[in-house]
Design a protein that fits this description.
Elements lengths: L2 E7 L4 H10 L6 E8 L6 H7 L4 E3 L8 H15 L3 E4 L8 H6 L4 E5 L11 H8 L3 E8 L9 E8 L6 H27 L8 E4 L1
Parallel strand pairs: 1-2, 1-4, 2-3, 4-5, 7-8
Antiparallel strand pairs: 5-6, 6-7
Helix pairs in contact: 1-6
Length: about 200
């Protein structure tokens, strides 16, 4: 039986689309059942609708506090009862309460080879550091930002001619390939009660 997945987005939703496409392939072990977005202007909203997915928009500005905003989201999650949650460009930190409710069931994709360059402005910092290889990481969400268990990584070369935009595009292409592979590997490992091995993909 396919595992029920809800995707969280804040922006363009391109990683969401890659997961949705993968989920429609024969034998893929996940089904995307809904999308949650915290930005009413996100381009990903229309993409979710184009894929006939229920989309729930929780504009942070409409709530008196972070706690109230998160409580509304948790109420929707309780109705769906997803097996897993995938953050795909979701730009809001969640509480320890949220994490504990879905412990080891929330995946995130980050545009660097963690543990390097946690947080924001990853490509700018990678270029400033002079790294020759960058990439992306799929990891479990933990209380400390970008510090959960690494599930899979993809590497891309950093060229002397790269700027933040060109590097971001290369990494994003790798993300689109990595996230569906990592989700599959996680499900097939986690639900068979075996430890999912860390994997490094190169595209």
């Amino acid at each position: 039986m396919k595992k029920k997945v809800i995707i969280f987005i804040s922006g363009n939703g391109s990683n969401m689309v890659s997961l949705v496409k993968a989920s429609k392939q024969t034998g893929y072990p996940a089904e995307i059942i809904a999308v949650i977005c915290d930005n009413p202007h996100a381009a990903g909203i229309e993409k979710a609708r184009d894929n006939n997915l229920p989309i729930h928009i929780f504009d942070r500005k409409s709530y008196p506090s972070k706690e109230a905003h998160e409580e509304s989201i948790l109420n929707i999650l309780a109705q769906y009862q997803p097996d897993l949650i995938c953050f795909a460009g979701y730009m809001r930190l969640i509480s320890s309460h949220f994490i504990k409710l879905y412990e080891d069931k929330i995946l995130n994709i980050h545009p660097s080879l963690l543990p390097s360059f946690k947080g924001l402005n990853t490509h700018e910092r990678a270029l400033e550091a002079g790294v020759k290889i960058s990439g992306c990481t799929v990891h479990l969400v933990a209380e400390e930002m970008d510090s959960g268990k690494i599930l899979a990584q993809a590497a891309v070369p950093v060229c002397p001619s790269d700027n933040t935009d060109s590097l971001a595009q290369k990494v994003l292409k790798a993300e689109h390939k990595l996230y569906p592979k990592a989700l599959r590997a996680f499900i097939e490992g986690y639900y068979q009660e075996t430890d999912p091995q860390q994997q490094l993909f190169s595209f």
